Amino acid sequence: MTPTDGRATDLRIAPIGDVLDRVERSLHVHLDRNTLVRKRRSIGARTNRDSWVRIERRPVEKILGQGWNGTECASALGGIAKPEWQESVSWRDPVEATMWRADETGLLPGPPIGSSVLATDPQLPEAWWQSLTTSLDALAGQDTTRVATPDTEVITQTLVTTTVQTAFPTRADTTIRRWSPAHADLNWANITAPHFCLFDWEDWGMAPRGLDSASLLGASLAVPTLADRVRSERRDDLESRDGKVMTLFVFAKFAGADAHPDDPRVEPARREAARIVSELQSA
Q1: What is the mean pLDDT of residues 135-139?
Q2: Whole-number pLDDT of residue 8
Q3: Is residue 47 within 8 Å of residue 78, measured between CB atoms?
Q4: Region of poorest pLDDT, from 1-15, 21-35, 249-263
Q5: From the CB of residue 13, how many other CB atoms can be counted at a distance below 10 Å?
Q6: Beta-strand pair 42-46/98-106
Q7: Are 238 and 210 in contact (CB under 8 A)?
Q8: DSSP-assigned beta bridge partners for residue 276
Q9: Which end of the chain has the lower number of beta carbons within 10 A, N or C?
Q10: Mean pLDDT value across residues 106-133
Q11: Which of 212, 203, 208 is nearest to 67 (CA)?
């Protein structure tokens, strides 16, 4: 595959036939090409044995440390609505400085709710919201040595402080006081409905309290009623001191100085960020 810099390939448009063939041989499975879902750095397809295979490509420097077996490691987590992991295969690209990994899991109980950011209210049933809260609370109560990698970047105190201060300068102390396990890529493209199920676990690990709740809030701001429901359901996280810092961290990624002028989330995010900064400074 080209180019050979290990980072520039977009799997939505790159040739992937050889990758699919290799995965089929390694897992002894047939991938239904008619069900292919292609994203920038991952591919997914249904198999002939009623399972799903997700294939991901990452630069080598992005998998140092804890590795990138998140989906496999997440199989040990209890009390969370997620697909059952079955097996995997990984290999290093012989030309590029990249690694490939394919994970086979059970099928999802329903379709993803939408793209990562929603523009309309999905009108989710009460049972869905209950399952969301149960799953996120169960996740936060478990133990792991993994460290979360939102956007494939290891989350650290320095990253949090730098990101927040760059977008929303404040004199407030942004030191995180509580860390707990988080999915670290919680958005509307990684959740199913009408039955709640959280998938794509490659980035999960320890993170500041409130990261997941803030991420879902940030993905909901274009729909005020949806954002209000997220605030209500995840109030304990979002109203905690660490949760407020995480809200600034998440909002900084799309509402900072380089914000896209047509993004409907920008203005509500900036208003909420101003309130949070004021609260943190007066605390």
Answers
A1: 98
A2: 60
A3: no
A4: 1-15
A5: 9
A6: unpaired
A7: yes
A8: none
A9: C
A10: 95
A11: 203
Q: Take residue 40 and report the two structure tokens written for it.
A: 């920038």
Residue 135's closest CA among 69, 54, 212, 71?
212
At 148 the pLDDT is 95
Report long-range pairs for 64-72 (Cβ below 8 Å, ≥24 apart).
65/147, 65/154, 66/145, 66/146, 66/147, 66/205, 68/99, 68/101, 68/202, 69/101, 70/146, 70/201, 70/202, 70/203, 70/204, 70/205, 71/103, 71/105, 71/200, 71/201, 71/202, 72/103
Determine if the peptide bond prior to 194 is cis (ω within 30°).
yes
Helix (H, G, I), strand (E, B) or coil at 153: coil
Question: How many CB atoms neighbour CB 30 within 10 A?
Answer: 12
C-alpha dist (Å) from residue 227 to 117, 213, 216, 268, 269 = 11, 11, 8, 10, 11
Using DSSP, state whether 62 is helix, strand or coil: helix
- Secondary structure (3-state) at 253: helix
Domain residues of the chain, as ranges?
17-106, 126-282
Please give the structure tokens belonging to residue 140.
């936060």
How many residues are present in the chain?
283
Q: Could you tell me the end-to-end alpha-carbon distance of the chain, in angstroms, rounded to an integer?
A: 53
CB atoms within 10 A of CB 189: 18
**Residue 22 burial (C-beta neighbours within 10 Å; 0-12, 13-18, 19+):** middle
Tokens of 61: 């420097």
% of the chain at pLDDT higher than 70: 96
Classify residue 225 as left (phi > 0), alpha (psi -120 to 50) or beta: alpha
CA 218 to each of CA 64, 183, 198, 270: distance values in angstroms, whole numbers, following the listed order? 29, 15, 17, 11
User: How many CB atoms are closer than 10 A to CB 232?
Assistant: 10
Q: Strand, helix or coil at 28? A: coil
Does the domain at residues 17-106 carry the CATH identifier 3.30.200? Answer: yes
